[in-house]
């Protein structure tokens, strides 16, 4: 086992700690001394650096000045280079401008843009001493450039602006509206078909012609744009208007459009004028749906982005052509009214209504207001003239003073004319309803048309009653009225007028026809039937004998002969006269013959059966009994045939 180490005694530990404290104190004193020396050395460095900085300051100033001088030189050189580049570009632009735009139009336009850029540059750089002179020279050059540009615009537009030939226009029409031949005259349909054309044309597809090649339009657009930017808007408008308006009018002229005044219209014979109206309707469609539509497309493309010119140019170009077309319609609307003009007026009103929305679309904008107003004004004038002509017709029917009576009592020409007129009117039902609404807003257009039609029918009936009084024979008066009113009823029943006038009107007038038929029988046959009466033939007791089946006792042979003689004369006279009369409707004619036969033949058979024996037993019985009942029936079959 090892010997344990004992700790030092307390006195020894205290000595160790004291020694360590002394060592530490000495170290601190040494560090302080070193620090003081370092501070002294650093202070010496600071003094030396300050002296060095003072000595270096002039050098630094010179160096900074040199650096700034270099920078200024660089800036000046760069500025000089920019100006020199501008001069180079100006010289290049000037050379191209002096050569003109014809060889290289796009390069010419680029040169103008470069010139404008240079003007802006030198205007904003007044530090360059000669900038004012450069700007002045550039402006003079730009003015010359724009002047050449105007000439190029005019030349290019003129060279590609040609009238559209009629054949080419016809190819753009729907098949249903193309003329049978290529001549302008054949483009006008028969006026009687104009209403049908209107219905066909309203929803048809039209293909407006290309007026200027698509490859040329962008160039013209750039030219116009540069002219406007140069402040030459008015010159651009004038060039475009003068060139395109002349071409448009020439296209219409080749088509056959002519400008006619009211006086010109009054001098033209109706047949010729009617054809001209038909062609005018056709021309209006071609002008609006093809030529004006194509012209609007050219304007919109050429002046895209130049809103101030779009509408104004279109308005100026089309102004003369629109005036030429509308002047004819205006002349017709203001010309002397006559019944036969009503249908062409309605045709003209229809085409203006058909084109109304397209005119509003094409001629939109403030610049086109005058054209829109002119078209609307013509539509209203046509409507008013048609309405007044309608009123004139009603009055003319009632007051028709034709003295020439129809000798055979047939349908009067006035009746067939009026009925055909009314039938034609019903082809224009929708147009007439629209026309009535122009003047009487809110009223039922159906009831207005029915009212007008009834008034015309009543006016006709009143006139016919007056004409019937020209006949000396009352029976012919009744036959005449029966024929004419029956014609009215039959025509109404077979047309759309029936739905408008109603069954009540038809039934009422059928009763009038029957009344005149009955009155005819009384006036024509009462006298001859009296010859077959037993009154005055028998004695006072003979009346009762007459009912015993043929007993002629009490009858005077002489009276019987006299009655038969009178009957023969009267029947032959009736046959001769009434076989010249006419009942044109076969059904009515047969029913009237049957009605006469049902009265005459039984009376004749009865008379011959009862009193014929008195004659047959005498001399020459055939002198008195000339006809059998079958003979009379056969001869009645010759009545109302209009034989001469």
From TrEMBL:
Domain of life: Eukaryota
Region named Disordered: 171-197
GO MF assignments: phosphatidylinositol-4,5-bisphosphate binding
Any single biological process term in GO: protein transport
InterPro entries in the cross-refs: Cullin_repeat-like_dom_sf (IPR016159), Exo70 (IPR004140), Exo70_C (IPR046364)
Signal peptide span: none
Skewed-composition ranges (Low complexity): 175-194
Domain Exocyst complex subunit Exo70 C-terminal residue range list: 279-637
Key words, A-Z: Exocytosis, Protein transport, Transport
Xref: Pfam families: Exo70_C (PF03081), Exo70_N (PF20669)
GO cellular-component term (any): exocyst
Function (record text): Component of the exocyst complex.
Family: Belongs to the EXO70 family.
Name of protein: Exocyst subunit Exo70 family protein
Species this protein is from: Centaurea solstitialis (yellow star-thistle)
Phylogenetic lineage: Eukaryota, Viridiplantae, Streptophyta, Embryophyta, Tracheophyta
